[in-house]
Amino acid sequence: MPNKRIHNFGAGPATLPVPVLEEASRGVLEIAGSGMSVLEVSHRSKEYEAIHFDARDRLLRALGLDAAEYAALFLGGGASLQFAALPMNLLGGGTADYVNTGEWSTKAIKEAKRFGTVNVAASSEDKKFSYIPKSLKLTPGAKYVHITTNNTIEGTEYGWLPETGGVPLVADMSSDILGRAVDYGKFSLIYAGAQKNLGPAGVTVVVARRKWLESATDDIAAILSYKTHLKADSLYNTPPVFAIYMVGLVLKWVEAQGGVAALDKRNRERAGRIYAALDAYPQVYDPAVTQKEDRSYMNVTFRLRDANGEKEFLAGAQAAGLDGLKGHRAVGGFRASIYNAMTADGIDALVDYIEKWARK
Ligand SMILES: *Cc1c(COP(=O)(O)O)cnc(C)c1O
Q1: Residue 138 to residues 90, 124, 129, 186, 243: CA-CA distances in angstroms?
Q2: Does ligand 1 come within 6 angstroms of the Cβ of 176?
Q3: What is the pLDDT of residues 42-72, one digit of tens each?
Q4: Do both 277 and 155 map to the same domain?
Q5: Which domain range does residue 29 map to?
């Protein structure tokens, strides 16, 4: 156990469970009695293959998906690479529907336009992305519908999933995968950078229907092709070995917490306490998302009514051991990222600080 852990509310790379860090630190010294560090083993070794396939199978199990129907890929390049890889592989000059709910959706749209036609099926840009649009104008025969289930920067989250009438539903779930219990089988493809809810930076997961991946184009660079990685089980080239190892450890920890359903329940309750503390002092706090059903339970965004107090608020938080509360530079204000690994003590300390600040 490290001597002194602060409460890290940073949006990503984000806090990880201490038992995972402890186990990983042992793995850095030696893995599975091999006489080698996990950082030193060949990605073709039996030691690594055990880690790799275990993480893959655990991920599908945690999401409640059948391995015969769905594949889980471990890729490099971050979620940002998937903004391009998805349309490169599966748009093929056709039309895709995108819902624009923030900075990350905007980036995904920009990349998709290079590979086909993008119909923006709905947008909340008119109100600084402070809500989730409820009605979508979908294109008949679209290749897919893309949503960002949790908007990490703005602090909104879908409390529902769009009905697409059989068109594949795709989601950037970088900041809420494993943090929410939804029917993951409703999605044809999910992608997520690991550094919020899954593990350290360096690996991105793509979970998708095998049949759909098999229909992807062959006419792109092998390294960018979903088919390449599907066929090679994410071992086409050297994968981000250490990051995948840690995702496996996080998945074991998720199971020990009772799985995604238990975490979802706990996360909602935790976020509810923070929002309640903010809402109790409307003369002091200005929550960025006013429509309660659209509030994220992964990233809580808020401002002070008196913006002059921001510096002092942050300094006081820092002194109380609360780190990473500064809002994204595009939005300002504050953001508390409360992913799965945030501790109960961290939540208590934040709620306490919010109340004390308001009362003083
Ligand atoms: C963090 C984040 C990204 C960007 O991830 P990278 O791995 O840095 O490319 C994309 N989408 C969402 C929703 C995010 O939270």
Answers
A1: 18, 16, 20, 17, 37
A2: no
A3: 999 999 999 999 999 999 999 999 999 999 9
A4: no
A5: 18-256
